[in-house]
Structures are given as C-alpha cells and as structure tokens.
Design goal:
heterodimer, A: mainly alpha, two-stranded antiparallel ribbon, elongated, B: 40% helix
C-alpha cells in the first residue's frame, strides 16, 4: 500500500469511530432533562414515536464497542500500513500452524525414514500415509492411480525414464528431472520427409506401419540423429532420460501424428524437485510408495 | 382447519400489568379490555426488577406424578453415561472424531439427515402434545423445571418452610444466617458441578473424565471449561433465574399459545363456581352471603413457582405444573367442598360445552408425527453403515494407454461406518467393456475412510459417445447387505 492509501484508510477508519462517538455525545447531551414521553408526532396503528432518551446501556455499548475498535486497531493491523503492536499476520499464523504440524507429524516421518524403501513398500500403514502424500502432492499431474497422463509418466508400469531402483526414484523426487528431446534429434538439417521416415521406423517396432521402404530410410536416419541418446537398438538410455522407443509406452502419444510432432518439434518435460517443498523424510516415504506401485 | 383466537385474546388480558406505579420509563399503551369492550389506556412499566418468589411446598396427586417423572428423567441423565458395553460408552458424542455412538450404533456426519428428521419429530411431538395437553412438557419434563425443583427441595431442607425463608431473608446478618446460606449455595454448586460433569461426560468418556479431572490430567482444557460453564449455568438457572427463564428466555413459552385451542388441556380456575371470592367460616351457608366456592386463601398463589395468580385466567407464565390444583384441592377438602375449583380442564369445558380430543388440528399433528416417526424408523432400519464417494481425477480427463485403451482415474473413498473390519469387492457398471485395472478387493478397518485409487479402461470401440454415466459399487464379501454405490462419469473420445 502506498503511503497515500495508507493515510486514506487510516483517516476514514479513525474518522468513522470518532465521528460516531461525537454524534453519540451530542445526542446524549441534548436530551432534555425530565421531559420524556413527548410525542414526535409520528403515529401508526396505535404506536407512537416518543422523544425518549437512549437507554444508558445502549450508550455504554456504543462506547465499549468504540474502545474495543481502537484497541483492536492498536494491537492488530488495520490502519493502513501500521502492522499493530502484536506483530500478528495471517502469513505468520499460517507458518506457526505449519510448524506445529511439523512438530506433531515430523517424528512419524522421521521414523519411516529410518527404514529402507523396499521395507516400507511392504508396510501397509506406511503405504496408506504414502498414498495420502501422493494424493496431495503428485496426483495432480500423475493422477490418483499414478497412471500418468499425456506428458506425465505412468508410475505403475515398471518402465522408467531415469531408473526404477529405490535410489533412482528417490533421486528423481529429491532433485527433480529435466527431460529434453531436441527438435529433430541431433540433426537440425532433417527434412520433414526424413521426420516422416523416422516415424515409420519407430512404428515398425510394433508392426504398425505398412511402408517398409520409409522405415528402412528412417533406420538410417535414426543411427545418425537419435542413437546417441536412445541407443543403436532404440531401447533408450536411463542415464540420459531417453525412453525406450521399441515398447508400447509413449509419454507424448503413440500415434503417427504424435510421434511425428515429437520428432519435428522436440519435447521438454520437467519433474519438479521436492526436496525443499516436502523435506527428505516425506520424499523417502513417497519414493517407497512410488516404488511399491510396480514392486508388489 | 378451524381458526380460533379465543385463547390468544384471553392471554392478552395479562399483558397490561397490574402495577400502575409511575416509573421513569412508563409509556401509554392501548389495550383491549374484554369486559368493557372498548379501548382503554393503561400505563405499563417497561422494566420491573424481579420480586423473589417464595414457593410454598405442597404435596398432592400431581406433585407425586411430577416427582416420579422428574426422578426417572434425572436417573436416566445421571446414569446413562456410566453404562458401557464392550468398552464403548452407550451414549458418547465424540466430537473430535465426528462420530456419535448411540445405543450400539455409530453415526457419522453422513447420517446428519437422521438428526434433522429426529429434530422434526421432536418439533411435531411438541406441537401434538401441546395441542392436546397444553404445557405438560414444561410441568413434568423440562430440565429447567427438574433442576429448579431439586434446588427448591435443597432450599426447603436447609432454610425451612416458606414463612421461615421469608423471615430468614428479612433477618439481619447472623452466624446462623451465614451458615444456612453458605450451606445452601454450596449444595447448589455441588449439584451444579455433578450436572456439569455428567453433561461433559457425554462428550468426553466419563470413565476417563472423572479420574482425569481428579488427577488433573485432562487431555484438553476445554473439558474443564465446559464443566465450569455448566456448573455455573445450572447454579444460576435453577438457583437464581428460575421462573425468569420460562418468562423471558424460553421461546416455547412465547409460541406455545399458537398451538392452543379451546379444547387444549389447561390449568384453570372455574370462575363461575369460585367467584365472588371471600373468606368465611367453615360450615356456614356462604351461598346465602353471596359468595362463591373460592375462600380467597391465596394458597394457589403461594405455591406457584412462577408467582402468578391462576384466578386471573390463562396466562403465558403458567407452566402447567398443577401445584395450584393440589393446593386448592386440599383447601376444598378441608372446607368439605367438592374438589376441582382449580383443575385440568379446557376452555370449552369451562363454558359448559363438550371437549374433543379428535379435532382437525390434533389429527393433523398426530398424522404428521406418525409419518415422521415412520420415516425415521425406516431410514434407521434400512441404514447401511458403509458409504462410497467417487472423486474423478480432473488433472487429466482421460488418457490413452500404450495399448490404445481409454483410461480414466478416480479416487474412491470407502467409509466403513460399522464396528467390524470388512473385505469389500469393487465393481463398475454402466458401459459394456469397462475394466478396472487397479485393485478391486480391499479391507477397510472399522471406522476407516479407505482411499482406493482406481483406474478404469475400455477399448475405444465400445464408446459411441464421448461421455457415459457409470456406477461404482462395493459389496462386503462377508455380508451382502453391506453395499454402497456411487455414480460418476467416464470420459473419452469416439474411435
């Protein structure tokens, strides 16, 4: 808030309170002594408005409310940029509650962190906790059932871009991953026909192409543009996060047009690092849960 | 329905107050005077400080009935929370766990509709019985009445009879007065404390609460706060406020008049028989002196816990406790007159007409009450303590599997509200070819909300539209009546 608006708010708030008190003072003072029950001349259905003083308890309530309001404005933020002497803020309250939660539940996660990931994967109670962590932190992209979506890998099929060992999964969760498929692989000079040939070659692994000649041409192109990462047999390389292209798992879609698009324009995928967000103990448990999805 | 405002108009007689002392805040009001049938102006004080009512204790038929009904309710209140079956308190409102344990059943927030039906039953029950029998709730069952009578009993035991109490209050300060007063208030507070402790015992298992309280190891300060709160509330309500709760705080006292009609049972003085009132010697021919049966002894006023004179007619202050009937019948007996000068009667009977139990209003309330009880019992009996909620994933509406199937993911929440663990089987229906690819068998512990991430897939050749209504159902393997279903949608694309 700029200082102008801060002053604007403060003046209006304080002006309202003191204005009310001023009106109250005038009304309470102008009351004629001993002259109650004067008719004001308004009458409806036998009910008349009389010129009676305000009840004392009512005036008192007004004064008490005003004092409360002023006290509130001193203690809590309310007057523009003035933060109040209690130093309260909603962010501070939230942080405090998070800290309380950590203090309460931290030991549970710390106890789980003592166990190994394959051990935790067999622990039904731990997996229920892990499942809730997953639902809160991972399901938004990977889905409640961890089956993934277009661009977000399926975590249940035991096919891993970066490795499915407990250590690799935990490393992926802790530090995240940057997947990068460059457009046209390592051969920027590739023509659209070449991309089409390459697509036919990849489809031929699952017998989904009739154009054998194109697939043959694509195979030659693959050796120069793709094999460095995906391997000469196209089975992928987990060290580079390069997927196996011979199976039926396609992160960005398996149809001709999808594969064509992937080769032509490249793909970039990001798995965000969770170390800072969740802390190592929770990540350990989450890794065990993800591990359990394909290691029953 | 007949429309009758007779009881209302006779009640309005009471509204202009008798004391016409000029106060600082008096105001002119216009009221209708029934006798003169023209507008009169009366002065009414808007505020009157409470005049302490010294209730004279009385024995009698109706007093015995009340003693029994109040004792039964009291014993139920103080005893039920101590009954446990298999370690489960018979009535326990477990607010932190959001579960109500009532007589062997456990109710969850999902059963809230039952509570609203129960409240509707209570409301119609109140309407029904008020129409027929007037304020028997107030006189015989209301906790305010019950605790006030306990407190009055203590007062009587310590400070003596009505006259002794008046004398004691007027007497100057003395050691004896201090002793009696502090004994009375200590006992009142003790009763209040036991009441508060019992009340909290319905929310915090009382077999833990009592030891926790006396070893100062309460799980939370709130239990202590509410014990103190209800101790003081009981003490103030039954010791100090008493009839003022009925007169100024209780909404029922104010709206019960709309359920009254001329056939409603009321406590009433028979004016035609009793007036003109006057004292007389026993066994004289008072009729010759022009007197009615009322000897104007004032007993009916002295015994009244709300401090009214029943001879002024039907008043909203009357809680229908029938103490004045007992008092008057005793006097009538002494005078060798027939009892019933003050009696349970109806306005019609007072006018010499016949009274009917069956009339449109009472029949309508009775039928509604019956229907609501039927609905409640039906839903209670057919209640299945398991529930299924399906939340469809919204991050991805559907996905294609590597094998070209269309797959949707859901989060299923299974609420096992029963007291045993059950193995459940999950099924899906609504579209031919649907197949669940995740677990379909699972075990939910008692009282558990079991999360079941579920994926359903289908070959696109079965999809003629882009969306279908589907239904998940779970069924317990050991008990086929334990089943629940929930609708959801299956999204995809046409082939």
């Amino acid at each position: 808030m700029t200082s102008f608006w801060s002053i604007w708010v403060s003046v209006i708030v304080l002006g309202s309170i003191f204005g009310c008190l001023w009106i109250l003072y005038i009304v309470a003072k102008s009351q004629p002594e001993g002259e109650s029950n004067q008719s004001m001349g308004h009458e409806f259905d036998g009910i008349e408005e009389l010129d009676n003083p305000m009840p004392k308890w009512w005036i008192l309530m007004f004064v008490v409310s005003s004092i409360f309001a002023l006290g509130y404005l001193i203690i809590y933020p309310g007057l523009g940029n003035f933060q109040g002497i209690a130093g309260w803020s909603s962010t501070g309250q939230w942080e405090q509650e998070v800290a309380e939660g950590e203090a309460k539940y931290g030991p549970i996660f710390a106890a789980y962190a003592e166990k190994s990931i394959p051990e935790l994967a067999q622990d039904a109670e731990a997996m229920k906790v892990g499942q809730r962590l997953f639902a809160n932190n991972c399901a938004v992209c990977h889905g409640s059932a961890a089956k993934g979506a277009l661009g977000f890998p399926n975590l249940t099929d035991d096919d891993w871009l970066y490795g499915g060992t407990p250590e690799a999964i935990k490393e992926t969760l802790l530090n995240g991953r940057q997947g990068n498929m460059p457009a046209k692989g390592l051969n920027p000079a590739m023509s659209k026909d070449d991309v089409s040939d390459l697509t036919h070659y990849l489809l031929s692994f699952s017998n989904r192409t009739d154009d054998k000649a194109a697939a043959e041409r694509g195979k030659a192109m693959f050796a120069t543009a793709c094999a460095a990462c995906h391997g000469s047999d196209a089975k992928g390389m987990q060290a580079a996060g390069a997927p196996n292209l011979t199976d039926d798992i396609w992160l960005y879609g398996s149809t001709y047009s999808r594969i064509y698009q992937t080769i032509l324009h490249g793909r970039a995928g990001v798995m965000p690092a969770q170390k800072e967000a969740l802390g190592e103990d929770k990540v350990h448990l989450l890794a065990a849960y993800v591990y359990s999805l394909s290691n029953k | 329905m007949e429309v009758y405002i007779g009881s209302l108009s006779s009640m309005s007689e009471k509204i202009p107050v008798k004391h016409l002392e000029p106060g600082t805040q008096s105001l002119e009001v216009y009221g209708r005077d029934n006798d003169k049938a023209h507008d009169v102006t009366k002065s009414v004080e808007l505020y009157a400080s409470r005049k302490k009512i010294y209730v004279k204790q009385i024995q009698g038929f109706f007093q015995r009935i009340r003693t029994h009904s109040l004792w039964a309710l009291m014993i139920a209140y103080f005893a039920i929370c101590w009954i446990s079956i298999d370690g489960q308190q018979l009535v326990h409102f477990d607010l932190p766990a959001r579960q109500f344990h009532l007589f062997g059943a456990t109710f969850w927030p999902q059963d809230f509709v039952l509570l609203s039906v129960l409240l509707i039953i209570c409301a119609f029950g109140l309407f029904f019985f008020t129409t027929l029998f007037g304020r028997i709730w107030c006189g015989y069952t209301c906790p305010q009445t019950a605790w006030t009578f306990i407190y009055m009993w203590i007062e009587e035991k310590i400070e003596g009879s009505r006259n002794q109490r008046i004398k004691l209050d007027q007497a100057p300060f003395s050691f004896d007065k201090l002793l009696k007063k502090s004994a009375k208030h200590s006992l009142w507070l003790l009763v209040g404390f036991v009441t508060g402790l019992t009340f909290v015992g319905y929310f915090y298992p009382i077999r833990d609460l009592v030891p926790d309280l006396f070893t100062a190891s309460m799980a939370s300060g709130w239990a202590l706060f509410w014990i103190v709160f209800f101790t003081l509330a009981t003490y103030l309500n039954a010791g100090w406020l008493r009839e003022q709760v009925c007169l100024y705080m209780c909404p029922y006292a104010r709206f019960q008049s709309v359920m009254f009609d001329p056939d409603t049972l009321i406590v009433s003085y028979d004016k035609s028989r009793g007036d003109p009132r006057g004292s007389r010697k026993r066994n004289t021919d008072y009729k010759e002196q022009g007197l009615g049966d009322c000897v104007d002894c004032g007993m009916c006023v002295q015994v009244c816990p709300t401090g009214i004179d029943i001879r002024d007619g039907l008043q909203y202050e009357c809680i229908g406790c029938a103490l004045c009937i007992d008092a008057c019948d005793q006097i009538m007996e002494k005078m060798n007159y027939a009892p019933g000068l003050i009696s349970y009667t109806t306005e019609h009977r007072l006018e010499g007409k016949k009274s009917h139990l069956l009339r449109p209003k009472s029949i309508a309330y009775g039928v509604l009450l019956f229907v609501m009880i039927g609905a409640f019992v039906y839903s209670l009996v057919t209640r299945v303590p398991v529930e299924l909620d399906v939340i469809k994933d919204r991050g991805a509406l559907y996905r294609m599997t590597g094998l070209g199937k269309i797959e949707n993911s859901y989060m299923l929440k299974v609420l096992n509200m029963s007291d045993q663990a059950h193995r459940f089987r999950l099924e899906v229906s609504g579209l031919e070819g649907l197949r669940i690819t995740t677990h379909t068998e699972f075990e939910a512990a008692p009282g558990e909300v079991y999360n079941l991430p579920t994926s359903v897939e289908i070959d696109p050749k079965y999809m003629e539209r882009t969306h279908y209504e589907i239904e998940f159902s779970i069924i317990a393997e050991d008990d086929p009546t334990l089943r629940a279903r929930s609708e959801s949608r299956f999204l995809g694309s046409k082939e």
